[in-house]
Amino acid sequence: MAPTAIRRANKVSFDVPADQQPGLHNRWHPDIPSAATIKDGETVKIECLDWTGGQIKNDDSADDMRNVDLTKVHYLSGPFNIEGAKPGDILLVEIMDVQPFEERPWGFTGIFSRENGGGFLDEHFPSAAKAIWDFEGIFCSSRHIPHVKFPGLIHPGILGCAPSAEVLATWNKREGDLIAANKLDRQVANPPQPINVHAGSADEETKAKVGREGARTIPGRPEHGGNCDIKNLSRGSKVYLPVHVDGAKFSVGDLHFSQGDGEISFCGAIEMAGVITINFKVIPQGQTTLNLTSPIYLPGPVEPQFSPGRTITFEGFSVDHHGTQHYLDVNVAYRQACLRAIEYLRRFGYNDYQSYLLLGCAPIQGHVAGIVDIPNACVTLGLQDELFDFDILPSVEVKKLDMGNCAFETGVTMGEVIEKPGENAKGKMSFGGGLALKEEGVGAKEVGEKVKEVVAGLSK
């Protein structure tokens, strides 16, 4: 039988606001209506906006990064009803291809202001910044981070099936408990939020319900995957997703042209709008027969290749910038590895914000090297010399190049750099996280109690 054209399961528009497009949504909830139906065994093309719904522009200002509305983000395409899928099944998702739109061959990497989103290193680099990347075939380059060019490992940051009411209640309870117990000087979870909820084609009553109960799309979760930002879920990958509702209600979005391990600046990948091609197969009662309650995946055969002997690997340990010893804290260790790579790149003329952006989106290799040798966890970060058009391998003499600058806010020529942040946490040890503490969890208990009210309502 001759092959036929691959059907497009949906369309997105760059001219209509994302929150007015019925085939998109920005919450997880079982009552969001399906946007379309896909047959078991069918391959389709799914169009996706970038995760901000078009809030970030191709220009030389980071004002849009500073002012991004994070209540509107993660506009996902879907949910799609997969014929025959039932709770207890596994949905096998095979990623056949991912490409940017031909008319939009560019993407962006951003650092959010610490006051609006922040990121992994925001205690050191609290200012907003941005880099625009131009795509040419499999390669990308940026006017904001010059002398760099590399192939992308294109992938979706988010894919998953809708939660059941019971699974949703579990999410809201445990995240509400975390909010109530918070002693960090920052937001630690995102509870249900009615503001700027988009529930696809739902009527006003259902939309209000989704706003009260729906889970934010920011974190990945063990029951369904979601926002895991795994760069190896690229072309040829197979992902096994638990199904919790009739039809599975699969959604996808947050496409990346490239990403480093950890996506450290939060908006750290090269974010893009594009088209993903997926084949769907239902495995009846797969959660039982495969003994799977969380997603697993098989990586595809397509990945950029670099010479191991031309990769500089930085080591980080769970001793922070104040010299405080933390117990087997891989967050502290990875933060230190990143900071050492940023410090190293200063030798060649890059400023700290350019390097921070680069580590978020380039195909760096982050690994947990040792996690049993008390008290120090050891984490490594590999930076490939072949990303650059000059030699970054260790040498005695280095000639600094004119690296220009990334984009900052209007009137700002250099973002703030804090060498030793978190004085109130100095000397305080952690067993995970290693971030600045606050005196009391002011307001957190009240938020946690509000989330518990939502959970109680879901269980009725």
From TrEMBL:
GO terms for molecular function: hydrolase activity, acting on carbon-nitrogen (but not peptide) bonds, in linear amides. It holds the Pfam family FmdA_AmdA. SUPFAM superfamilies: Acetamidase/Formamidase-like (SSF141130). Transmembrane segments: none annotated. NCBIfam families: FormamaseFmdA (NF045496). This is Formamidase. It comes from Coniochaeta pulveracea.
